[in-house]
Structure formats: C-alpha cells, structure tokens
Amino acid sequence: MFQALLTFLSDFALVAILHVMGAGSFPKPLSAKEEAEQLRRMKNGDRNARNILIEHNLRLVAHIVKKYCGNPNEQDDLVSIGTIGLIKAIDTFKADKNIKLSSYASRCIENEILMHFRAKKKNALDISLDETIDTDKDGNALTLMDIMSSEENLIDQIDSKINLEKVNNFIRSLPKREQTIIFMRYGLDGSEPLTQKEVAQALGISRSYVSRIEKKVIQQLSKKFS
User: Fold this and answer.
1) Could you tell me the CA-to-CA distances from 193 to 58, 186, 198, 215 in Å, in that order?
2) 216 pLDDT higher than 70
C-alpha cells in the first residue's frame, strides 16, 4: 500500500507526510486568503503550493479515518488511502465551482476509503463463493455459488446498502420541513407512504408546495448520485 502511495505521489515528499502523521500534530488549516493564494500559485505551476495545500489538509484524512477505522491494524492503510483521496482532490479542485476545498476534499477522501472497503468485500466474496463447502449426493464438490439462488447477488446487496446509506444521510441533512415531507411521501420512517395531497393535509400546506419540495429534492439526489 505504501509503495502504491509512493508511486502516486511522485515528487511529493512522502516522508514529510508520514512524519506529520506519526507526530500526531497537524499544520493548522490555511485561512481562506492563504488557501486562495496557494491555489492560484499551484494553478500557475508552483509544485510547492500543491504540497502546502496537501499538508494543511492532512487533518481531514485523520478525521475521516477515525470515522471508518474499527481495527487499529488497518489505520496505516486507511491513512495511505485517504491521503491518495486528498491528493486527488487537490489536483482536481476547481475554485470556480462554488464549493469549499475542505468539503470537496472530504468527499474525495471518503470516496477513496469507501471504494477500498467495497473492493475488500468483493474480493472476500470472490474467495468464499469459489471455496468448496460441501459435496453433493454423487460426491461432487459444492461451492457457495452452486447453492445460492440466481436471484441473490451479494455484491449488489452491498452496493445497494452503501447507496441507501448515502441517500439516507443526504435526506437527514435537509431542512426539517423538507425532510418531513420526503419521509412522509415515501414512508422512510417505517410508515405507509402518503400521497402529496395527504402530506399537504397533514402538514397544513398546499399540495403544490409538497410537489415543489419533492421535485427539488429528487433533482438534488439525481445530481448528487448521478
């Protein structure tokens, strides 16, 4: 993993990153003015500005790794993977897209870690599905794949679970009124889904307002997860 990171970083001082991580002390985040200046310099080809931006956002890697690291033995690998996500964020960030670098970088770091976990789950399934677990009445080897029904696709289930969690987190981040409307419309709280008219009557608002909120949220979801 560290060799892969070394290759990815190319001319960036990996030793400096590992020193910062190991010391448990991170450079303070840059001010908005400092960050804008370093981004401008990097855009003009200043490689040191790129390094500064990476160093001063390393605390994001540590923060997100804590969120996903259940096994202390995985911490180094997750730090490496998260740092790759951070560097990808720095290299692809567009200052004119009306999003903070820290927000964009957090998303890239988290996506890199999630892809790592997804790949691990798929690899584990590949091994277990081909492993002999029993024999049939004629003495032929049976694998888990042989006895699974064709409708059951564990990898799709994992992907669906990850996507559902993302959608749920997004909906819960909405303003309270919008969140309530979506929960009622689609029964996300375990209750029966309601029509727009029923939601409007329950909340004392117009049906057209419910429709506008629903349409807006669906468009946001489509844009976010497309």
Assistant:
1) 44, 5, 10, 16
2) yes
- Give the C-alpha separation, 213 to 220, whole Å: 11
Fill in the DSSP letter of residue 193: -
* Banded model confidence at residue 162, pLDDT cuts 50, 70, 90: low
Q: Are 121 and 157 in contact (CB under 8 A)?
A: no
Residue 10: CB partners within 8 Å, gap ≥ 6?
none
On whether the CB atoms of residues 54 and 17 are closer than 8 A, the answer is yes
Handedness of CA 69, 188, 226, 210 (dihedral sign): negative
Neighbouring C-beta atoms of residue 52, cutoff 10 Å: 20
With a cut of 50, say whether residue 154 has pLDDT above it.
no
Q: Measuring CA to CA, how many Å separate 8 from each of 48, 84, 108, 122, 174? A: 17, 7, 15, 24, 37
